[in-house]
Every structure is written in structure tokens, then in C-alpha cells.
């Protein structure tokens, strides 16, 4: 089973590239972030014609998450992250697909920091930790997949001295991410590429793609039951270089049956 996460940066603007990727790689499950579409504008018909069922949680102009399943219909388990009834951002969606619980996550960026946006990021990560703990306690085979907006280690960015003032590299952000791992979740790419140097994002600005100035912020965290089934993982880097592509590349895992 192949499960992928892809910050598409606008599902309508990138739809040709997204459908191209689905056709070429045929993931069984695809978690999308930054859909940037209201619910009634989500192009469900295009995905159904491509052979995918879908659920989505949209928001006008920004945020938005979705889960696609090949030749199947995801069964929604949770919409929005519990813990803050006033949070209206469309950043979290959870579903059961093919016997696996999958969450599509668009974690807050947190810039500028310090400030209210960074505070919101850290509180959101606390809520994610609580939800993850519930899944772990229930022994549900789960994947927490998405754009975490956290660069976990200096090996996960093109230069260890780059972006040190950015919210993605703050000690508090990294500590919150490491807490998830300490509580039993496995970072799939970090496990298979311990040397680092694997990027999932290249900014549109300053020639970042051309100079390979990227970093890793798209992560797939596996519960113990699924970590034991992990056989491969990677990044579809070539899709980042295509015309009118997202600034992220699709990131994926493969699980044994």
C-alpha cells in the first residue's frame, strides 16, 4: 500500500499536475494540504473520473485539507483537531481507508515569531499531541501525514545556518515534534534516510529550486503497528520541477500487506 502526502498549494491552480501525479504514481491514499478551496468548489468530479474517492475540509483562499483513496471512499473519522472550538482553520482531517486511520495535517507556519501566530502554532501542536496520544492508546494503525512546517534537524535543510530565525526551526517547534516521536511515532523518511539531505519543499523565490536550496517539512509519522510494515519511502522530486507545480513535492511511504 502506498500512502502519500502532498501540499498542492491550490487544488484548482495545480489540478493538471495533481492528476498527472495520480496517474503516474497511483498512490492508494493521498493526503492533500493547502487545497485553498471552499467545500462546494472542490473538484470532486475530476478525482472520481481519475478513480479516486475523496473527503475534504475546505476554506476560502487558504488552508484546506483532503484525503483521496484509489477505487475506494474514505470514511471520515474526525474533522478539525479537537481542543479549541474557536479554531475555524481547515487544517486537519482524519479518515479510515483500507484498514488504516489516516490524518491529513496542515500545521500552522507560525511566522512571524515571536508573536500570536507562533503561539497558535505551539498550541496547535499540543492539540495534535493529544489527538495522537488517543490514537496510540486505542492501538489504531495510523499515519499522521502532512505539512508540519517543522524542520526537525540541521540535516533536513540545505544549510545548517539557514533560517535560524524562522518559526520552522525554533527550538519550541522542534521540541514539540520530537515529543511526538518520543511517544512512539516513527518519522518514516528519517528512519530510511538517517543521513538527511532529503528535501520536500523548495521556495518559489530566490532560485531555491534551481540551487536545490530545499528542506524537509512534509512528514509521515507511523504508529507502531504501521512502522513494522514500512518497506519503502521517498519523495517524487521531479514533480516539483514541472511547469506550474507546487512548491512542495509529493512524499510517500509503502507498507507491506
TrEMBL record:
Which PANTHER family does this UniProt record tie to the protein? EXODEOXYRIBONUCLEASE III
The entry assigns this protein to a family as follows: Belongs to the DNA repair enzymes AP/ExoA family.
Cofactor binding description: Probably binds two magnesium or manganese ions per subunit.
Q: Which cofactor does it need?
A: Mg(2+); Mn(2+)
Q: What is its EC number?
A: 3.1.11.2
Task: Please give the name of this protein.
Answer: Exodeoxyribonuclease III
Site Interaction with DNA substrate: give positions. Answer: 248
Q: Which organism was this protein described from?
A: Sphingorhabdus lacus
The positions annotated for binding Mg(2+) are 7, 34, 147, 149, 247-248
The protein's UniProt keywords, in alphabetical order, are: Hydrolase, Magnesium, Manganese, Metal-binding
